[in-house]
Amino acid sequence: MADLRDFPDQAYSGVHHGPLQEGEWITLQDSKGRRHSVKLERGKIFHTTKGGIAHDDLIDGPDAVTIRSKGNVEYLALRPLMADYSVSMPRGAAVIYPKDTAQIVTMADIFPGAKVVEAGAGSGALTTALLRAVGIHGQVISFERREDFAEVARKNVTGFFGAEHPAWRLEVGDLVEKLNEQDVDRVVLDMLAPWECVDVVAEALSPGGVFCAYVATTTQLSRVVETLRAHGEFTEPRAWESLVRDWHVEGLAVRPGHRMQGHTAFLVTARRMAHGVQAPRKKRRPAPGAYGDDYAGPRRAEPGTGASAEQPVQTSGDMP
């Protein structure tokens, strides 16, 4: 029976087994934990302060080995995991880090066969995770306004999977202007003003579909949450951030590590209600002053009134 673990061309998993091949990326790590991403090419030498490492000494050899530089310093050589690849890939825009990627894939419930819309594509880090999650029978449609960023994303995603992924379509342009999809299962927005896309996204999402936004600042967080509430046909938004802290474990010396992955961004999720169906309103009263004279953002219409009861939603240019 064939070994089903390794069919990269068919499965498009980005995972490979067997001997290391020319053109593959590997990670070299020294005894202090410092990592270097290296693309294997015959005849090339990776130079370190402790001497060079010949690519030919790794090509056609096994994964997960140690190799010594010409200066007799030992390095660990491994094929990178997707998390390793995403933080070391060439960048146009900043990448979404693995701790947030994992939250998006899980909390937005990205599943095999899903139809997912993403904006913007950035450098392609999140795109690789979305494509692996939906598989070859799903669909990821990525929008990126900047053509130079789109080209970086295309190279990184293709480099990870080893070929053009059959489930991926990359569109250069504004999602608000170009999105004409229907029956979308999930929408993930990594952009400066995701609230500007809420109406368009609401038309594309299937009932029960998930809206997910990735925003860096509290001002953006407030605007996207309140816009979802003002729309009326999304469930109450949930907002959170994740913090990751390593631990030092050595005998009886067990303590938090000195470094921590702190704030990177906030995540917001909400479910699309059936078209024309209003979500139940929050019963808990907001804090005093939450919507006082200083608040100038969107507001939900009061019960029994029309849309005119809402304040106009500010554009990104009006954002404080």
From TrEMBL:
A Pfam family annotated for this UniProt entry: TrmI-like_N
InterPro entries named in the record: SAM-dependent_MTases_sf, TRM61_C, tRNA_MeTrfase_Gcd14
PROSITE patterns cross-referenced by the UniProt entry: SAM_TRM61 (PS51620)
S-adenosyl-L-methionine in keyword set: yes
Catalytic activity: adenosine(58) in tRNA + S-adenosyl-L-methionine = N(1)-methyladenosine(58) in tRNA + S-adenosyl-L-homocysteine + H(+)
Region: Disordered, residue numbers: 276-320
Comp. bias intervals (Polar residues): 311-320
E.C. number: 2.1.1.220
Domain annotation tRNA (adenine(58)-N(1))-methyltransferase catalytic subunit TRM61 C-terminal: ranges: 85-250
Keywords attached to this entry: Methyltransferase, S-adenosyl-L-methionine, Transferase, tRNA processing
Keyword Methyltransferase: yes
SUPFAM superfamilies assigned: S-adenosyl-L-methionine-dependent methyltransferases
Its job: Catalyzes the S-adenosyl-L-methionine-dependent formation of N(1)-methyladenine at position 58 (m1A58) in tRNA.
Assembly description: Homotetramer composed of a dimer of dimers.
UniProt similarity note: Belongs to the class I-like SAM-binding methyltransferase superfamily. TRM61 family.
Protein name: tRNA (adenine(58)-N(1))-methyltransferase TrmI
Originating organism: Kribbella karoonensis
Source lineage: Bacteria, Bacillati, Actinomycetota, Actinomycetes, Propionibacteriales
